[in-house]
Amino acid sequence: MQKYDYLIVGAGLFGCVFAHEATKAGKKCLVIDKRTHVGGNVYCENVDGINVHKYGAHIFHTNDKQIWDYVNQFAEFNNYINSPVSISKGKLYNLPFNMNTFYQLWGTKTPEEAKTIIENQIKEYGYKKPKNLEEQALSLIGKDVYKTLIKEYTEKQWGKKATELPAFIIKRLPVRYTFNNNYFNDKYQGIPIGGYNKIIDGLLDGIETKTNIDFFENKAELTALASKIVYTGKIDEFFNYKFGNLEYRSLRFENTRLEKENHQGNAVVNYNDSDIPYTRIIEHKHFEFGKQNHTVITKEFPEEWTKEKEAYYPINNEDNQNKYQQYKALSLKESNIIFGGRLAEYKYYDMHQIIASALQKVKKELS
Ligand code: FDA
């Protein structure tokens, strides 16, 4: 018997926003997730007052006032500004590339001096049509920034030599000729006070939710419960990998609790060098200006992806895009199923983009 208007598979941001809006419009929803908790990748684990971003550091940022107002309904945001630093060959550099970074690299104090160095290096190494990531980076920023802050980090991140990586991975490299370490250019930025779980709890308030349920373990029975399904899991899995796996890059997180107040003085510290196997250390308390006597740090190790691991970053090469297009064509024939979210669309989305996408899809569905 159909008890629900919508069965929502996946309690990540996409599924939760869809469920919230549909419920507000009078529809009955059931949200399920195969994990032991709701929230998908924005879920935080509370370690004695410190919100640990379990699936990687999450910093909210947007230029869209509507999306900002939307999330602020559920939680107030603090004024955290992301200003990561990067360690390369024992020296510390500010990110994103700006006048502080150029001073640290060359001792330059004016935009003209820095610009001259970068432009000369671009001329020296510039490629008309870059054939790989290395050539692309050299043609955009020159050799010093590339060798000190991009090459080894990127090679660790993707597990491949920069000369074997496609140029399109780096579309542009933001360069600022101001002393401004604010990583994002967006007007609105911060971390929800009380963590992302507060937003998820607000979105799911009053909605029936079940965790520890894998849609595929009971597909027929679950499908029969609702008139329509909103599916936010992996699209290739939905079609039983008919055209083969869509590939991802995975991450392994190693969390350590330390009995000291402050370990690295910043939420995000990148490790550029190839002899250090992790790419970043996150110290979570700094996202919320925590004053606890203890701290929790997470080392982030990029890894090859296999089906048993978490799928983090889609590998957007031609082969995967062709496969995805085949899956997408099949999904368009499923009139009772709405596919949405990063896994069903095989696309990297930031949080504000996933919220916008869910709002747009639910509006279309309900109109
Ligand atoms: P999400 O993956 O969150 O949810 C899908 C859910 O479906 C999961 O909970 C999963 O368990 C469930 N599911 C899948 N298959 C199922 C099945 N068969 N049965 C039941 N349940 C199933 N964005 C940003 O704005 N700022 C940032 O700083 C970051 N940082 C960041 C770091 C890292 C490492 C990554 C990978 C991503 C980010 N993001 C980000 C992006 C952000 O994580 C992303 O936009 C949202 O989490 C996407 O929400 P979804 O609902 O699409 O997927």
UniProtKB/TrEMBL annotation:
PROSITE patterns: PROKAR_LIPOPROTEIN (PS51257). Gene3D superfamilies: NAD(P)-binding Rossmann-like Domain. Residues 149-348 form the UDP-galactopyranose mutase C-terminal domain. Signal peptide: none annotated. Keywords: FAD, Flavoprotein, Isomerase. Its EC number is 5.4.99.9. Its cofactor is FAD. GO terms for molecular function: UDP-galactopyranose mutase activity. Pfam families: GLF (PF03275), NAD_binding_8 (PF13450). Belongs to the UDP-galactopyranose/dTDP-fucopyranose mutase family. This is UDP-galactopyranose mutase. It comes from Jejuia spongiicola.
